[in-house]
Every structure is written in C-alpha cells, then in structure tokens.
Amino acid sequence: MTLIKAAAIQVQKDKEVKKNFKRIEKLIERAISKNSDIICLPEYFSMDSNFLKTLDENKEDTLSFLKDISQKYGIIILGNVLEEIEERYYNIAYIYEKGSLIGKQVKIHPTRGERALGITPGREINAFESSIGRIGVLVCADVLYPEMCRILGLMNIDIVLNPVVSFYRDTDPTKDARRALYISRAYDNSYYIIKAGGIGKSITGLKIVGRSLIVAPWGILKYSTDENKEEVVTADLDIDLLKEIRKENYSLTDRVPEAYKLLIKQTDIIK
Questions:
Q1: Over the stretch 186-211, which tens digit does the pLDDT of each residue have?
Q2: What does the pLDDT look like over 228-260, one tens digit per residue?
Q3: In this protein, which residues make up the domain named CN hydrolase (predicted)?
Q4: What is the side-by-side strand order in the sheet with 166-167?
Q5: Where are the beta strands (DSSP E) in the chain?
Q6: In this structure, how many other beta carbons lie within 10 angstroms of the beta carbon of residue 151?
Q7: Domain residue ranges in the chain
C-alpha cells in the first residue's frame, strides 16, 4: 500500500506579498508536521490589486518562494503566477519537487472577469511525472469543464491539484452541488483532487472564501471546517488502491470516441 499525505493550504491573503509568504510558510510547517508530501496553494495566493504593475517582480518572488519551500521541506508544491508572454497575460500554475521544476500548466478556461483583464486561455493540457505519481492541474474554473477533466483521466493522472478563488455569496444554494461536482469529477476519472482556496479579498477586491477540500473517487476525504478561517486540510491518498479502481472504471476503458464528434466542435448549444 502506497500512502501519500496531501495538504490544501487555506490562507488569508495579505496586502504585502512578503508578509503573505511568511504566513503561508507557517501553514506549510503545520502541513509538514503532519508528514505532508504534496501541497496545493490557492489561486493568486501571492498577488494583490496592483498585480499588473508588479508582474515580473511578483513572478520572480513567487517562483523563488515555491522552489525554496519545496527544497527546504523535500515536498511537492504548486502555486500560480500571472505572466506576460508576447503581450498576452497567462495564468500559469508551477509545480516544484524538492527544489526542481517538474512542470507548469496554463489555465485553459479563464473566467469572464479574467478575460476582461486580458488573461488568455491556454491551449495544452499536461501531465507531470513525480516521485509519488502522475500529477495533473485544473486551475480554478478548469474543473467546471468535464472535457478537460476527462482528458486528465485518460492521461492516467493520480492526483489533480486545483488552486481556486471562491467568491462569497450571502446565500449559497449550490453548496451541495459544488461538492457533488468534485466527487463526480474524481469518480468519473479515477483520480484524487486537492482543492485549495484562499480567504480575504480577491485581486479585484471582492470577498473570497476557502472551501478547500480533498476528494477521492469514493467521496470527500476532508474539507475545511470553516471557509472563512485559515486552515490546513490534509488527507491520506492510497495510490495503489486508486490504480486498482481505475482498472475497473469502464467509463474510461470502454469509451466510443466515434460517437463524441460534437465535443471537438466550437458550436452553440443544440436546441
């Protein structure tokens, strides 16, 4: 039996990025005290409302932080940055293991708010090899698109890292549906999902809540006890058990791709 300890860091954002790094490292130390092997940080964890003016500096500081943390504690860690490439902005998640970059994933489905800021969709879905298994990334809203989630399943991904921003609502009628969505994604595609959300204010100044969780194909393993407080959400992931379950998942093994032609067309919803 191969057990992996996973952690989602639910952290309060600070206006000063360097203070945020110190705050996050304290939470990471709590995760390390629980023997965590892989850690997911929230989307935009190191960015504030002035992000467009400090992109290069923020990227350098953030990636240096991720690299140093992964090396210092001997772990795998994911965090994201905004990058300007050929006059276009991209939301990119970076994964480091023990001080080395093992891969990066561009967000495929920026939200409408992100697109209004000029953030461009990615065009490639990647799988990353690590010492604990094969890793995939769904950056925030990417998890809402079953096509992308299925592709990761077809890549034999073991662990999906899902950094998110979740906006506060006075009433939340979708709470149960949202949790069911995560179970469905994990169940359909036979992988674990680590979702990490921040709390406080988004880069556009709106209130955000955590809603961090870790889910397996058979259900939620752990979720945050309070979506408005800092927390380290941890759970054990059994990789050997996951691989056995994947062998029996006939929605992966018995597909009929010839019948799915409409999925690869950019079209309006059929009425």
A1: 999 999 999 999 999 888 888 999 99
A2: 999 999 999 999 999 999 999 999 999 999 999
A3: 4-239
A4: 166-167, 207-209, 200-201
A5: 3-10, 38-40, 76-85, 88-97, 100-106, 128-130, 133-137, 159-164, 166-167, 192-197, 200-201, 207-209, 213-216, 219-223, 231-238
A6: 16
A7: 3-264
Neighbours of 193 (CB within 10 A): 29
Amino acid symbol at 36: S
Phi/psi-derived region of residue 80, left when phi > 0, alpha when psi is between -120 and 50, beta in every other case: beta
Residues constituting the chain: 271
Long-range contacts of 52-55 (CB under 8 A, 24+ apart): 52/117, 55/82, 55/83, 55/84, 55/89
Angle between helix 175-189 and helix 146-154 axes, rounded to 10 deg: 30
The residues that bridge with 193 in the sheet, in sequence order, are 160, 215
Termini Cα distance of the chain: 49
pTM: 0.95
Is pLDDT larger for residue 186 or for residue 166? 186
Residue appearing with tokens 């990058």: 83
Helices (H), the chain: 17-33, 55-73, 112-116, 146-154, 175-189, 239-247, 250-253
Of the candidates 84, 104, 75, the residue with the CA atom closest to the CA atom of residue 92: 104
